[in-house]
Amino acid sequence: MKTAIKLAYRNLTGAGLRTWLNVIVLSFSFVVILFMKGVMSGWDLQAKTDLTQWEIAGGKYWHQQYDPYDPFTLSDSHAPIPPELADEIAAGDMVPLLMTQGSIYPQGRLQSVLIKGIPAEQSLLKLPTHQLDTVTEAFPAIIGAMMARNLKLEIGQYVTIRWRDVNGTFDAHDILITDIFSSNVPSAEAGQIYLPLETLQEMLSMPGETTILTFRDEERERTSVEGFSLKTKETLTASIDEMLKTKEVGQGILYFILLLLAMLAIFDTQVLSIFKRQKEIGTYIALGYTRGQVVGLFTVEGAMHSVLAALVGALYGTPLLWWMAKNGWTMPVDTSEFGVPIAQTLYPVFSPGLIVSTTLLVVLITTIVSYWPSRKIAKMNPTEALRGKIQ
Amino acid sequence: MEKSVISIRQLVKKFPAGKGEFTALKGIDLEFNTGEFAGLIGPSGSGKTTLLNIIGSLDVPSTGEAVVLGSSIGELSAREAARLRKHSLGFIFQSYNLLAVHTVFENVEFPLLLLDYSASERKKMVQEALEWVGLTDKTDSRPPKLSGGECQRVAIARAMVKKPSLVLADEPTANLDADNSHHILKTMETLNRELNTTFLFATHDEKVIGYLRRKIFLKDGRVDKEEWVKQTP
Ligand SMILES: Nc1ncnc2c1ncn2[C@@H]1O[C@H](COP(=O)(O)OP(=O)(O)OP(=O)(O)O)[C@@H](O)[C@H]1O
Ligand SMILES: [Mg+2]
């Protein structure tokens, strides 16, 4: 094996240009695959960070009736804030959120919205709720940028909302857009408006009630609270993991194409060299190699392309990827239209595990691709190989 | 003390040809002892290379027997045959068959890599072999930069570096001019005397024939006649 590596290295460096062309193509795949994987894990991190900061914090209590996928449950999912949680709320470590279904009438059009009531003084979530602390005739409201764009709403604009009160009768009032925020978190923005908690409680005649409670401390032991169910941070981020997994399938196809291109170069080199180097193969056998050992040598030669590619890739990839990780990668299209939690500028994350596993994968595949055509050597007749007569 | 190196009995070699068979060797009986400087001589197609390849364990007899250094060629496994070549045989080819991308040193070192010598031993042995052929000043050159004569001297050094018992040389001078031919033949003759290595040539070159101490004339796959040259003390 040591001899094969030494010989393979000599053969490769001796072959010059052809080797380096392959190595560069392969190193390019290396760097691009690493980059894309880095973007994926950066995205994962960003999505979770944003989701945490804007929506879930350390976890939540949901009213037992509450089901985010079924808006009809909303009319029943509210209850007075449990008194045992009052201290945590007072300390600013827990935020109640009341929700109801409603409609909004921008420019005379109707669109249904989720109306959320949140305390203006909260600082647990990144939402600019202090902008709700405005005294106006209309209700102060904040909305997300996606929503604002869809409905063509701007700060300072008035718009009518309609909702059903406890008795089921419709009620309407104007709201004033006091702020528009951009969170990269669709579930915190899409189709929803935020009003001051007390305002919503009054609108619905549900004083002191809430639908969910978001808390800061994810570590704390939490006992069950009557009428509410606990949702840990893990459960709440599971949907992101799910989403990224599906994205990864799409990425997988791209890796596959990239790898295929690189492997084609290696495969082609192997097939050609087995044909062109017949005499050399015969010579190895005359000098005491078994045909199996020659197959081994050619396989190591092919695989060594990927080792050299890793080194060459590291040479220009390290500064490039480091720069990307530091300055981020700004996507050329407007990402808020994607409907997935993605920031305009992503900061790729390159963990050692990612780098090592990608490298091992490429080396493994290169080895297999090199071995495949080399098996032909095992069928060669050495005397014919020596004469270079095999077609 | 003379010892049998090669013992060939009733050797027949057939090749598939078209629908039938072609018999390249039609019953050869030969015996070679340690230290011989012998040659298979004959016109093109007489079976010289075929016989040399069988002796070199690169091919096998169809019938009959070829025992080389105690091993019966037809009965060796591929692994055993490779082992025989690795340890005991040296090959010299008409077209040199050097590894073009390796340096002279690396070419000569090659057989030693297979034999697990240490780096310092290898260095010493390669140096010595290059001294035998007078190429110590070209260790770092690569074959494409060398003349034909120099290439063949590298090939001789590569065949001799592990001090094999038997060296097989197929038309070693076919690509060389007269001066270079004499040079490499003298080199081989000296090595034959000093290391007592057995040399077996295949040739139809008069210059080579002039150096041989035993001449085996092949014709149509048969031994036509043999001549021994009286050794001058
Ligand atoms: N692999 C093979 N398949 C079929 N026929 C072969 C094969 N190898 C050799 N022969 C035939 O066997 C005969 C002897 O060939 P061989 O190469 O031994 O001759 P040679 O004496 O070395 O000739 P030359 O001086 O041209 O090298 C030739 O007629 C050749 O065509
Ligand atoms: Mg021949």
Number of domains of chain B: 1
Mean pLDDT of chain A: 87
End-to-end distance of chain B: 17 Å
Kindly state the number of beta strands of chain A. 13
Tally of helical segments of chain B? 7
| Strand ordering within the main sheet of chain A | 3-4-8-5-7-6
Beginning-to-end CA distance, first to last residue of chain A:
29 Å
Radius of gyration of chain A: 31 Å
The number of helices of chain A is 11
Name the helix and strand elements of chain A from N-terminus to C-terminus, one letter apiece. HHEEHEEEHEEHEHEEEHHHEEHH
Give keywords.
heterodimer; A: 391 residues; 2 domains; six-stranded mixed beta barrel; two-stranded antiparallel ribbon; 50% helix; B: 233 residues; Rossmann fold; four-stranded antiparallel β-sheet; 7 helices; binds adenosine-5'-triphosphate; binds magnesium ion; ABC3 transporter permease C-terminal domain-containing protein (chain A); transmembrane (chain A)
Please give a structural write-up.
The complex is a heterodimer of chains A (391) and B (233). By secondary structure, chain A is α+β, with helices and mostly antiparallel strands. Chain A folds into two domains: 201 residues, no CATH class; 116 residues, no CATH class. In chain A, 50% of the residues lie in helices and 18% in strands. A six-stranded mixed β-barrel of chain A has the order 3-4-8-5-7-6. In chain A, strand 3 and strand 4 form a beta hairpin. In chain A, helix 1 crosses helix 9 and helix 2 packs antiparallel against helix 10. The model of chain A has no long low-confidence stretch (mean pLDDT 87). With 233 residues, chain B is an alpha/beta fold. Chain B has one domain: Rossmann fold, CATH 3.40.50.300. Chain B contains seven helices and ten strands. In chain B, the strands form two sheets. A six-stranded mixed sheet of chain B has the order 6-7-8-3-9-10, sandwiched between helices. In chain B, strands 2-1-4-5 form a four-stranded antiparallel sheet, covered by helices on one side. In chain B, a hairpin with a 2-residue loop joins strand 1 and strand 2. In chain B, helix 3 crosses helix 4, helix 3 runs parallel beside helix 5 and helix 4 packs across helix 5. The two termini of chain B are 17 Å apart. The mean pLDDT of chain B is 93. The chains are: A alpha+beta (391), B alpha/beta (233). The complex binds adenosine-5'-triphosphate and magnesium ion (MG).
